[in-house]
Amino acid sequence: MGWLGKFLGGAFGFLLGGPLGAILGASVGHQFDEGIAGTESDVAFGSSDQQRVQMAFFTTTFSVMGHIAKVDGRVTPEEIALANRIMDQMAISSAMRTTAINLFQQGKQADFPLDAVLAQFRRECHWRFDLIRMFVEIQLQAAFADGALNDYEERVLLHICTQLRVSRFDYERLKIQLKAEYRFFGQGRQYQKARRQSSLEDAYEVLGLSSVASDAEVKRAYRRLISQHHPDKLVAKGLPEAMMTIAKEKTQQIRKAYETIQKSGRKL
Fold it and tell me: Which of 4, 109, 128, 200 is the most buried (most CB within 10 A)?
């Protein structure tokens, strides 16, 4: 991720600024990305808008994840493990991993400026709903990491959705789909012994449907979800390239659910 090496050269505030720039700067400290660290001269006023969006997404993702993990008073081993799993998926350098961990720690602080962070994130993303939805999906995963969504986490997630203009309907649909994914793929502590006979029903819910959906509805839902989570499209809109693996995993899950429905005898 070239933008990290450039802003580690000293120009992160120049590129991003605002509460996100302050949080990112405090998290970076004197760490330098191995092999790609640049200098201030590497960055000019003409730096791409995509770099700003990537920095905003990365910073907001890990800091808000820490905030959600701490909101119920304690950070569980499962929540820490999820953050580490996302970092593993990203295959990031040791310095960038340190930055992500520091962002997570900052999010846990009592004075973390959640609303200001979300407001800047929304602006930097230019209201690109695909990016915002991916962000909410990651935060939902973080909240479910310890096996359940408690009232404290639910309230914060709903507040986040309100600030990002994500409707309650979309939030509830994402939550249902995530639970179905956990059952379908045997992920999450409470789903690892999921009954096999529920797989087909869960496959429909992964696509946001019920088993009475028509063939046309199944095809339409599948194509829409694949398009929404297409890694190249998301990166073009500002998803950090290192997070492509998360989007790829999501598209693989969507395809697996669709193939399961196909194998049930549907002519899709």
Answer: 4
Nearest to 57 by CA among 244, 247, 240, 245: 240
Instruction: Count CB atoms within 10 A of the CB of residue 146.
Output: 23
Helices (H), 8-76: 12-15, 18-28, 49-70
Judged by DSSP in three states, 190 sits in helix
Cα–Cα distance for residue pair 26/102, rounded to 1 Å: 8
Cα dist from 49 to 3, 86, 183, 229, whole Å = 11, 24, 39, 21
Distance of CA 185 to the CA centre of its chain: 19
Residue 63 near residue 23, CB atoms below 8 Å: yes
DSSP 242: G
For CA atoms 166, 236, 204, 139, the dihedral sign is negative
* pTM of the predicted structure, to 2 decimals: 0.75
8 or 246, higher pLDDT: 246
**Residues whose CB falls within 8 Å of the CB of residue 29, separated by 6 or more in sequence, listed in order:** 102
**Res 245 pLDDT > 90:** no
Taken in order 39, 40, 46, 48, the sign of the CA dihedral is: positive
Residue 177 and residue 140 in contact, taking contact as beta carbons nearer than 8 Å: no
Distance CA 173, CA 228 (A): 15
Q: Quick one: which of 31, 13, 48 has its CA closest to 237?
A: 48
- Alpha-carbon gap, residue 189 to 178, rounded angstroms: 14
Over pLDDT 90: what percentage of the chain?
27
| Residue 187: strand, helix, or coil | coil
